[in-house]
Design goal:
The complex is a heterotrimer of chains A (about 325), B (about 375) and C (about 260).
Chain A lengths: L7 E5 L1 E2 L2 E2 L1 H17 L3 E7 L6 H7 L3 E6 L8 H15 L3 E5 L2 H14 L3 E5 L1 E4 L5 E7 L2 E6 L6 E5 L16 E4 L10 E8 L12 E5 L6 H13 L3 E4 L1 H5 L20 E5 L5 H4 L7 E6 L12 E4 L2 H21 L1
Parallel strand pairs in A: 1-4, 1-6, 4-5, 5-12, 6-11, 7-11, 14-15, 14-16, 16-17, 17-18
Antiparallel strand pairs in A: 2-3, 8-9, 9-10
Chain B lengths: L7 H18 L3 H7 L4 H9 L18 H14 L1 H20 L2 H13 L4 E4 L15 E5 L2 E12 L6 E8 L6 E7 L5 E6 L10 E12 L3 E2 L5 H38 L1 E2 L2 E2 L4 H29 L5 H26 L9 H12 L6 H13 L1
Parallel strand pairs in B: 1-4, 2-4
Antiparallel strand pairs in B: 2-3, 3-7, 4-5, 5-8, 6-7, 9-10
Chain C lengths: L1 E7 L1 E3 L23 E3 L1 H16 L2 E8 L5 H10 L3 E5 L9 H15 L4 E5 L10 H9 L3 E10 L4 E8 L2 E8 L2 E5 L11 H6 L5 E4 L1 H4 L14 E7 L7 E3 L3 H14 L4
Parallel strand pairs in C: 1-4, 1-6, 4-5, 5-11, 6-10, 7-10
Antiparallel strand pairs in C: 2-3, 7-8, 8-9
Classes of the chains: A alpha/beta (about 325), B alpha+beta (about 375), C alpha/beta (about 260).
C-alpha cells in the first residue's frame, strides 16, 4: 500500500500580531503542492493572542493551524520556537516545510532543519514537484538554474522570499481546524531577546513602487551611488541594490534585490551600473519595461532588458536626471 | 630548476600592497595632480603601512624583506600612482647607502625612524652638469677640524623639499678623485631646498633643487670610508635605483593595459565594442607581451639581488626594457582611447605624461645601453 | 582567556565569479581559472575577533573546510593576527551541502578543544545560504545569533549583541559559548600588513582529514548531505534590447522619451 504522504507545512510569521504577506503567499503555493501530493496544508503560527489571525491562514489555503498562543511567544525566541516546531514535526511528520526568507526565517529554518537532520534549500525562486513527487527547489547560480532536491530525508525544507509567489486570493469562507500547542517548560533560555526595534523604512517601499531603480558595483564609490539614489528620488522609485553594492557598504542589506534579498515586481525597472547577474535579475519578476545603463557593451545585462544605454553611469545619470526634470516640468506647465 | 612562480607569501605581499594602494593612495591622486605636491597623508600612510621598512634589516626596526618584496610593493603602488612609487623608490635609494655603508651608530640613529616612516629619505647626486657621470659633479667639501664644509647645488632631486635625511655626494675641493657621501639632515645650517620643479609627469612627487652654502656637516655623518664616497653612491644606484624604476615602470604599464582593456570593452564603434577590432587587439597583445617580458627581467634581477649576487647589469637591461615598454604602452593606451585619451579626466593622459619621467630617472635609456654595451664588450 | 574560533571560507573571487557558467549543451560548469579568495563577510568575523583580542585576553583559532589550496585564506587570517589555523581537507568532504559542512566544522571545533565564541560571516558569496552558522550551533548544542551588527557587551559569560532585522534590530542577551554570524555592518576589516605576513611564517596550519576528525564517511561531504543538485538548467530571460546611441545628451533625451512612453514618469 502506498504510504500517505505527510502534509505540507508553512511556518507562518507574525510581527506585532500581523501575519506577514510571505506566509500567506507560501500557504497558497503549499496548497498547489498539496493538491498534487494529495495531502493537506498545515500552518504553524506562534505568537500571543493570535486566534483571530488564524482566519487569514485558512483563507489563504490552510486546512489546519497549529497555534501557539502565549506571552512567551509574542516575539521570535529562537530556542522556544525551535523546540516547539521540532517537537511537533517529529510527531506529525510533515512531508514539506516552507518558511519565509525573513530575518526570522533565515535563522529559524536552519535551526529546525539541523535538529530534524534534514536538508534545507535557501531563497528559492520556485518550488515544483518532480516526476517522483519530490520537491525541487529552483535556485539561480552560475548563469543558470539549479534544481536542488532532498531525496531521502524528511521533511523537505525550503525558504522563499516575499514576492516569489503571488498574493493569494483569499477565500474568507474557508475554515479549518485549530490545534493548540503547549509551550514547553524545559527550555534552556540561553538567548533572551531584550528589545526589538523596527524603524520605518526610508525611501519608497518596494512592495508598492511602480518603478524600481537598482544600482550595482558600477557606481564606483559612494559618490557614484548617491547619483543613482538621486535618480530613484527623481523618479519617485524604490532604490534597490545588488550584492556587490551592499558589500561595498553603499546600500543597506535590506535594499538588496535578488535571490537572497527582495523580490520585486515593478512596472519599470532601471538597472544602473550592474552586470545582470542572475542572482540579482531573478529578483525582478514580471517587469513590463526594463532598462539598463552600463559602461560595458558586452555586459550580460543588455541581453535581459528592453532598452540599453552604454555609458559610464557616473557621468550619464546626472545628465539623465536633468532631462527627466525638464520633462517633468514640461508636463506640469502643459 | 628555475622557479618562475611567486611564493604564497609574495602573493600575500602583493595583495597587501594592492589593498594599500587602492584604499590609501588612489583617492589622493587627483589632489596630488592638482597641487603638484606630494601628499602628506600619503607619506604618512606609507609609513604606517610599513612601506618604508621593506628593505631595512630587522635589527634596525625594518622588515628585512629584500628586493623582490620591494619590487612587488613598488609595482602595485605605481599601478595606482607612479608618483608615489617614485617617492618610495627614491626613499629606498636614499637609505641604501646607510644600510650598506653606514656605521653602527649611523644605522641605529637613522634606520629605526626611517623604517617607521618618521623620517623621509632621499639621495642627491645629480647636478646641473648631469647625473650619469657623477665624477663631473661640482658640489665640494673641505675638512675643517672634525667637520666638513659643503658647498654646491644639486638639482632634479626627488623628495627635495620633504626629505629629512639626504645622502649627498660631493667632491674634495683639493682632490678631484676623492668623493664623500654625507647624510645631510633637514635644517642643518647652510643647507636649504630652493627651487621646486614643475614636471611634465609624476606631479605627485616632489622634485627640486638643494643648495649648500658653507653647510657644516659633522664627521659622524660621513658615510663609508673617507674619500671613497663614489662607491657608496654608485652601489645603490646600480641595483636599488634601477630596480626601483623597474617597479615604477611595471606598475604604470599594468595600469595602461588595464585602462585600455576596460575602455576597449566599453567603447562602441560600428555597433560593437572596439575590443572586437583586430587593430585594437594587436595593441593590447603588444602591451601584454611587453609587460610579461618586463616582469621576467625585473624579478629575475631582484632574485639575483636577494641572493647577494651582482645584478646591476641585469637591472640595466630591465630598466631599459621596462621604462621603454611603459612609454610605448602609455602611447598605445592613449591611442586606444582616441580623443578621450587627451582629456585629463581619463587616467591614461596622466600615464602618458608620467611615462616620460621614467626614462631619465636613475639613468636614461641611452645610458642603460652604454652600460649594457660595456657589459657585452667586457 | 577568551577562546575564539573564526570559521572562514575560500570562495571564487566575486569580482570574477560571473565567469563561471553552465555550459548549455553539457550542463557542466565551464572550467575557469577564477581565483579563490577569503569570503568577504568572513573578514568582518575576523576583524571582530581581532578587536576582541585587542580588548581582552583572547586567543584566535581559524577553521576552514576546503581543498588544500584553501590554506592560503587560513594563512591570510594568520597574517591578519590569528594565532593558529586548521584546515579540514579531505576528498571525502567534497560536495558537502550546508548541513554536512556545518557538521564537519562542528566536529573540527570539538576537536580543537574548549572554546567560548565561534564567529563566522553571515553567508558565503558562493552558497549564500546563511545556514552553516545556525546548523553548526545546533550540532555543538550551543546558542546562535545570526546577523550580528554590533557587539554591545562582551565581558563575562553573557554577551549582549544587536542583530539585524528588516528595518531594525533586536537586542539579544546570549550565554557563552555561542555562535555569532556577523554582517558587513559590524566593523571595517583591517588590511594585511607586511609585518603580519612575516609573523604568520611561524604560525602553524594543521590539516585534518576525515580520519583525524573521526567523522563517519556517511556523514561527510556529498554522502552526508541531505540535499543534492538534481538538475542544471540554462534559462532564457532574454529580451531584445534596443541600444540607445548618440551623444550623452542625446542618449538621455531618447531614454526619457522611452520612459515617458511607459506613462510612469
Amino acid at each position: 500500500m502506498k504510504k500517505q504522504p505527510g502534509s505540507v507545512w508553512v511556518i507562518a510569521e507574525q510581527i506585532d500580531c500581523r501575519i506577514l504577506d510571505v506566509s500567506l503567499q507560501l500557504i497558497a503555493h503549499a496548497r498547489k503542492l498539496a493538491i498534487e501530493l494529495e495531502t493537506s496544508v498545515e500552518a504553524v503560527l506562534l505568537g500571543d493572542k493570535m486566534n483571530e489571525q488564524t482566519r487569514q491562514l485558512f483563507a489563504a489555503g490552510a486546512d489546519r493551524v497549529y497555534l501557539g498562543n502565549a506571552p512567551d511567544l509574542a516575539h521570535y525566541q529562537p530556542e522556544i520556537y525551535t523546540e516547539i516546531i521540532v517537537k511537533l514535526a517529529k510527531e506529525r511528520q510533515p512531508e514539506i516545510v516552507l518558511i519565509g526568507s525573513t530575518s526570522m526565517g533565515r535563522e529559524l529554518a536552519p535551526l529546525v532543519a539541523a535538529r530534524l537532520g534534514t536538508g534545507l534549500t535557501a531563497h528559492c525562486i520556485d518550488l515544483v514537484l518532480d516526476e517522483n513527487k519530490i520537491l525541487e527547489s529552483i535556485i539561480p547560480a552560475y548563469g543558470g538554474l539549479l534544481s536542488i532536491i532532498c531525496p531521502e530525508k524528511r521533511p523537505q525544507m525550503a525558504t522563499i522570499a516575499a514576492g516569489v509567489f503571488p498574493k493569494p486570493e483569499m477565500d474568507e469562507n474557508r475554515t479549518g481546524e485549530i490545534i493548540a500547542l503547549e509551550v514547553p517548560d524545559d527550555i534552556p533560555r540561553r538567548i533572551q531577546t531584550l528589545e526589538i526595534i523596527r524603524e520605518k523604512p526610508q525611501g519608497v517601499s518596494f512592495e508598492s513602487a511602480p518603478i524600481v531603480v537598482a544600482g550595482g558595483a558600477g557606481a564606483g564609490d559612494l559618490e557614484g551611488w548617491r547619483k543613482i539614489a538621486d535618480l530613484a528620488e527623481t523618479l519617485n522609485a524604490a532604490l534597490g541594490a545588488t550584492r556587490p553594492a551592499v558589500d561595498e557598504g553603499w546600500a543597506e542589506l535590506e535594499t538588496m534585490v535578488g535571490q537572497s534579498g527582495k523580490i520585486v515586481s515593478p512596472e519599470l525597472y532601471i538597472g544602473v551600473g550592474l552586470s545582470g547577474e542572475l542572482q540579482h535579475m531573478v529578483g525582478i519578476v514580471g517587469a513590463k519595461v526594463m532598462v539598463a545603463i552600463n559602461n560595458d557593451a558586452k555586459s550580460p545585462v543588455f541581453e535581459q532588458v528592453d532598452y540599453g544605454v552604454v555609458d559610464d553611469c557616473r557621468e550619464f545619470v546626472p545628465v539623465l536626471i536633468n532631462k527627466i526634470k525638464e520633462y517633468q516640468e514640461k508636463l506640469v506647465t502643459c | 630548476m628555475i622557479d618562475f612562480t611567486f611564493t604564497e607569501e609574495q602573493e600575500m605581499f602583493r595583495k597587501a600592497a594592492r589593498e594599500f594602494a587602492e584604499t590609501k593612495v588612489a583617492d589622493k591622486v587627483p589632489e596630488m595632480e592638482e597641487t603638484e605636491k606630494a601628499s602628506d597623508e600619503v607619506v604618512k600612510a606609507l609609513g604606517e603601512a610599513e612601506m618604508m621598512a621593506l628593505t631595512i634589516p630587522e635589527e634596525y626596526g625594518g622588515l628585512g624583506l629584500g628586493y623582490t618584496a620591494r619590487l612587488i610593493a613598488l609595482e602595485e603602488i605605481s599601478k595606482v600612482s607612479v608618483a608615489t612609487g617614485m617617492m618610495l623608490q627614491i626613499f629606498a635609494l636614499g637609505i641604501e647607502p646607510i644600510i650598506q655603508f653606514g656605521s653602527e651608530e649611523q644605522k641605529k640613529k637613522y634606520l629605526p625612524a626611517l623604517a617607521k616612516g618618521e623620517l623621509l629619505a632621499s639621495v642627491a647626486v645629480t647636478e646641473a652638469t648631469g647625473g650619469s657621470d657623477p665624477t663631473g659633479i661640482r658640489t665640494s667639501y673641505r675638512k675643517e677640524g672634525n667637520d666638513y664644509i659643503l658647498n654646491g647645488r644639486k638639482c632634479f632631486i626627488t623628495n627635495s623639499h620633504i626629505a629629512d635625511t639626504i645622502t649627498v655626494l660631493a667632491k674634495d675641493e683639493e682632490n678631484p678623485k676623492a668623493f664623500n657621501a654625507f647624510i645631510v639632515e633637514k635644517g642643518m645650517e647652510g643647507f636649504k631646498p630652493t627651487r621646486e620643479e614643475h614636471k611634465l609627469g609624476m606631479r605627485g612627487c616632489n622634485t627640486g633643487e638643494l643648495a649648500f652654502e658653507n653647510c657644516r656637516i659633522p664627521s659622524e655623518n660621513l658615510l663609508g670610508v673617507e674619500g671613497k664616497g663614489m662607491r657608496v653612491a654608485l652601489a645603490a644606484i646600480g641595483d636599488v635605483g634601477r630596480g626601483g624604476m623597474v617597479g615604477c615602470a611595471l606598475g604604470l604599464h599594468a595600469a595602461c593595459l588595464e585602462a585600455s582593456v576596460k575602455f576597449a570593452n566599453e567603447r562602441i564603434l560600428y555597433g560593437k565594442p572596439i575590443s572586437n577590432l583586430q587593430t585594437i587587439q594587436n595593441k593590447l597583445a603588444d602591451m601584454k607581451i611587453d609587460l610579461e617580458a618586463g616582469r621576467l627581467l625585473g624579478y629575475r634581477a631582484t632574485s639575483m639581488q636577494d641572493k647577494g649576487m651582482r645584478s646591476s647589469n641585469e637591472f640595466a637591461v630591465a630598466k631599459y626594457f621596462t621604462t621603454e615598454a611603459a612609454q610605448k604602452a602609455a602611447k598605445m593606451a592613449v591611442d586606444i582611447h582616441g580623443g578621450y585619451g587627451c582629456m585629463e579626466e581619463y587616467a591614461v593622459s596622466r600615464y602618458l605624461r608620467d611615462s616620460f619621467v621614467l626614462g631619465p630617472s636613475a639613468g636614461t635609456s641611452d645610458i642603460m645601453k652604454v652600460i649594457i654595451a660595456r657589459w657585452v664588450l667586457s | 582567556m577568551l577562546k575564539i574560533v573564526v570559521c572562514v571560507k575560500a570562495v571564487p573571487d566575486p569580482k570574477e565569479a560571473h565567469k563561471i557558467k553552465i555550459d548549455p549543451a553539457t550542463k557542466i560548469l565551464t572550467r575557469s581559472d577564477v581565483p579563490f579568495v577569503l569570503n568577504l563577510v568572513d573578514k568582518n568575523a575576523m576583524e571582530a575577533a581581532l578587536q576582541l583580542k585587542e580588548q581582552l585576553d583572547a586567543h584566535i583559532t581559524i577553521l576552514s573546510m576546503g581543498p588544500p589550496p584553501a590554506d592560503n585564506i587560513v594563512k591570510e587570517c594568520l597574517a591578519l593576527g590569528a594565532d593558529q589555523g586548521f584546515l579540514l581537507s579531505d576528498r571525502a568532504f567534497g560536495g558537502a551541502d550546508a548541513y554536512a559542512t556545518a557538521y564537519t566544522l562542528a566536529k573540527g571545533i570539538e576537536k580543537i578543544g574548549p572554546y567560548d565564541v565561534v564567529l563566522c560571516g553571515m553567508a558565503s558569496s558562493d552558497g549564500s545560504t546563511e545556514w552553516v552558522g545556525p546548523e553548526m550551533a545546533t550540532f555543538l548544542k550551543i546558542p546562535v545569533v545570526t546577523r550580528v551588527n554590533e557587539i554591545v557587551e562582551y565581558d563575562g559569560e553573557w554577551w549582549k549583541v544587536k542583530a539585524g532585522l528588516e528595518n531594525g534590530y533586536r537586542l539579544v542577551r546570549v550565554k557563552l559559548p555561542a555562535v555569532f554570524t556577523v554582517t558587513r555592518d559590524l566593523n571595517t576589516p583591517r588590511s594585511l600588513t607586511f609585518s603580519g605576513i612575516i609573523k604568520a611564517r611561524k604560525k602553524e596550519i594543521t590539516q585534518w582529514g576525515i580520519d583525524e576528525l573521526a567523522v563517519p564517511e556517511e556523514s561527510a561531504g556529498q554522502k552526508g548531505s541531505p540535499t543534492i543538485i538534481s538538475n542544471l538548467a540554462t534559462i532564457d530571460s532574454k529580451r531584445t534590447v534596443e541600444i540607445i546611441t548618440g551623444t550623452r545628451e542625446e542618449k538621455a533625451e531618447q531614454l526619457v522619451q522611452k520612459l515617458a512612453d511607459t506613462g510612469l514618469i
